[in-house]
Specification:
Strand order of the largest sheet: 2-10-9-8-7-3-4
Order of helices and strands: HEHHEHEHEEEHEHEEEHHHEEHEEEH
Shape: globular
CATH class of the largest domain: Alpha Beta
């Protein structure tokens, strides 16, 4: 089974050409026009190496996050930053809040870290179903570990831990000499995220992972970054990283799109409206459980079939969804779907009702 969504190439090689990909969570507005225009005007960038220290790129990202560029590390997608951090920290024992992104485990296995998992709790309250993090229980269970890994907002559950709880958790972990790694690659889909990010804490104990992949619809450009206030960890990462892993067009992208207010405002309007509509309509289908989400994907539990059978039926209709049964603590009745534009979402709803 694929560890990630977006593997449409596999099905295209099998002859399925026209596939609507609901397995990867990419902004349906597409690549910002400002970037397309600037790339078309700057093909000469390919004739020279990017700045090996990426100063202007890091300044752009720093301004976007209201922090100094010295606190920014850039890489070839968020996965490179993730693997570099785990290698630099080299934790002996790690606790991963789950179900969550599979690459944390893969990165940690490269360091021979002993890995354990802390489960999110399934909650039903006021006719809403969602996953929640028990901070008190996590604090108790984290003792004896070197690192806690948290995806926030979480993939695949869509759950989000408020900043006050992150602050409480981090103070406990720091007191007990336990580092906190927070993946915020989906945080921009949350309203007023700038006031809710862990970056507000400016903590040396927290490492924050981000990417331009999802919100700015750039999975092919491969640009991720880390926010870090710990000099020792920054120095260690810089000592082991390879040079020029961010290509010239990715470098350009990070300087251009973070200031594209029109694209950002249009995206914020889309996700706010479409998320409410899509969840409301999905809940009308009685044979699935719908979990509340804070981001641009929705976790579903199938009541009358398995993930594999469901995937087969959806593929027959030309739609690829994410089989979520390989996430820790989820069984073979879970799938994850993206949120796209109204026309595509309406089509998917029609197919769901049909099958």
């Amino acid at each position: 089974m694929d560890l990630h969504g977006g593997n449409i190439y596999k099905f295209q090689r099998e002859g399925k050409k026209d596939i609507l990909d609901y397995s990867s969570n990419i902004n349906p507005l597409g690549v910002p026009k400002t970037l397309i225009e600037r790339i078309s005007q700057n093909f000469s960038l390919l004739e020279r190496y990017p700045d090996i220290n990426y100063i202007d790129l890091r300044k752009s990202i720093g301004k976007y996050n209201k922090t100094d560029f010295e606190n920014i590390l850039v890489g070839n997608g968020a996965t490179e930053i993730l693997f570099l951090y785990m290698k630099a920290l080299n934790p002996k024992k790690t606790l991963i809040v789950s179900p969550t992104f599979a690459e944390y485990e893969r990165a940690l296995k490269n360091t021979d870290s002993e890995i354990s998992y802390f489960p999110l709790k399934k909650i039903e309250k006021e006719n809403k179903k969602y996953f929640d993090l028990d901070i008190e229980d996590l604090k108790e269970k984290s003792l004896g570990f070197d690192l806690v890994v948290l995806c926030n907002p979480n993939n695949p559950t869509g759950s989000f831990v408020e900043l006050s709880k992150i602050k409480e958790l981090n103070e406990f972990l720091e007191k007990n000499k336990i580092k906190l790694f927070i993946d915020e690659c989906f945080i921009e889909f949350i309203a007023n995220w700038q006031n809710k990010t862990s970056n507000m804490l400016r903590s040396e104990n927290i490492f924050i992972l981000r990417a331009l992949t999802k919100y700015f619809a750039l999975p092919g450009i491969r640009l991720g970054y880390g926010i870090c206030y710990n000099k020792d960890i920054k120095d260690k990462i810089n000592s082991i990283r390879e040079p020029w892993t961010v290509n010239a067009f990715a470098d350009l992208a990070g300087k251009i799109i973070l200031g594209d207010r029109e694209y950002i405002e249009k995206t914020d309007r889309w996700i706010d409206e479409e998320r409410r509509y899509f969840i409301s309509e999905l809940k009308k289908i009685g044979t699935i459980e719908v979990f509340e989400t804070n981001t641009n994907f929705i976790l579903l539990r199938l009541k009358n079939t398995t993930s594999e059978k469901f995937l087969e039926k959806m593929l027959a209709e030309g739609i690829l969804v994410r089989n979520a049964s390989n996430f820790k603590f989820l069984d073979n009745t879970y799938v994850r779907i993206a949120i796209k534009d109204r026309n595509k979402n309406s089509f998917l709803l029609k197919v769901l009702k049909k099958i």
